[in-house]
Amino acid sequence: MAGLPGADPLVGALGKHLALIGFMGAGKSTVGRDVAERTARPFVDTDEETERLHGPIPELFERGEAEFRRLEEQVVAEALAGPPAVIALGGGAVLSEKTRQRLSAHAYTVLIEVDVDDAWERVRGSNRPLARNEEDFRRLFDSRRPIYGEAMDALADDAESVLLAALRIVIGRAILSPESFVVVDERVLALHPLEGRDRVISVPSGEDAKSLAVVERIWRELELDRDGMIIACGGGSTTDVAGFAAATYKRGLRWTAIPTTLTGMVDAAIGGKTGINTEEGKNLAGAFSFPSAVFVDRAYLATLPAEERRAGMAEVVKTGLLAGDDVWSFGEEAMIRACAAYKAGVVLSDPFELEGRRTILNLGHTFAHALETGSGYTVKHGEAVALGLLAALRLSGLETTVVEEVLRPAPVAADRDAAWAALKRDKKGEGVFVLLEAPGRPVVTAVSDDDARRALEALIRK
Ligand SMILES: NC(=O)c1ccc[n+]([C@@H]2O[C@H](COP(=O)([O-])OP(=O)(O)OC[C@H]3O[C@@H](n4cnc5c(N)ncnc54)[C@H](O)[C@@H]3O)[C@@H](O)[C@H]2O)c1
Ligand SMILES: [Zn+2]
Fold first, then answer.
1. CB of 308 shorter than 6 A to ligand 1
2. How far apart are alpha carbons 26 and 400 in whole angstroms?
3. Residues 338, 330: contact at Cβ < 8 Å?
């Protein structure tokens, strides 16, 4: 629906195919298979599909390249007519103008970059018809570049960067267009002033921002047409409230997120869930509204209090356990990239939480919410998640060393009965939890009341 004003429900690859284009030897098939698995989408490799339907590509080329391109165009058209998939296109597929038009209508197209020397090393000696002579290969590489440039929506070089691009997550400095309104956490604004900018709406620091009164004030102060844009700059509280204001103002404006906490960068700013708290509880009013872009700028982390960083690390460990990767031991940028990409993959697999796949992101959170409620919210979310992960690992029969070493959780003071009641309410009597068969293999499974209660009690101080 490009061109319409207002919020775009199909940001990036949401609801569309994710098409990978690029020169032969770029690794489109390998990356594509990986991305398909991580987004739970079907995978189509158009070269393989063409061979399956019509026979070996070298033989098809013997009948002339034009004939091969005609068959390839059909294969691509058919893949694009199916449900959202990850499609790796043959290196020359975008030479077809029809294919380029179809991609632009039905796919988010990512160019997998490769250096010509690497590409040649990978394909020389293969039986690819267009990789028999190095000079011709290099000439072809140069001649295709502008065509790829025309067809692509984003650039990437591995599965992680494809997943980030697919939800338009950009690691680096944000671009703040002057016409947009910046909704910013007041504490963040004091630490990172937006000098010379007038369209600024500052909101209370942290969770206090997530109220209807703040949303009303944002609505009142915005002076935007439906094609305007809101920029949310702050932690998860700010992106939740600003995203919700964007989703509701004039029936929905586009918005971009600039997360300033670790939690925001690896979790809260990603995935389109926005909302506020009501007197009855947290996140009880909200909407799905996907940010048009998420700018992850690590410069903000320099001022983040240690306690908030620890809270973010709890979500990092959660993600690493789900992904089966020790992301917590990576350097900061690699860690954030890996976590953001993991969440992007899960979100793309089930954007509106209709199929339950997003549920796995709640690893440790059922116990965490019970502790938060049972303590009257004196236990912070990050601390509660660290304990919740401990409970989930214990119930999974797995080692807890990672959580203990990275997060050092200690039992907290909470009302046992209130925590148990909250946990039961959260489960709506279903007794279903996210556990791990092994790191990297989350399962949604039933746990008996006895086991759940014992696991919960172990998290509460005697
Ligand atoms: N929408 C989602 O998918 C999602 C996911 C996870 C959490 N959340 C929500 O996110 C909220 C928690 O967000 P959070 O943990 O990012 O924290 P936050 O937004 O509540 O901010 C926590 C504190 O850090 C301060 N702060 C933020 N950035 C700073 C910086 N760069 N330097 C110094 N101080 C800074 C804030 O002023 C505040 O005092 C909760 O309301 C939670 O429900 C939403
Ligand atoms: Zn959380």
1. yes
2. 40
3. yes
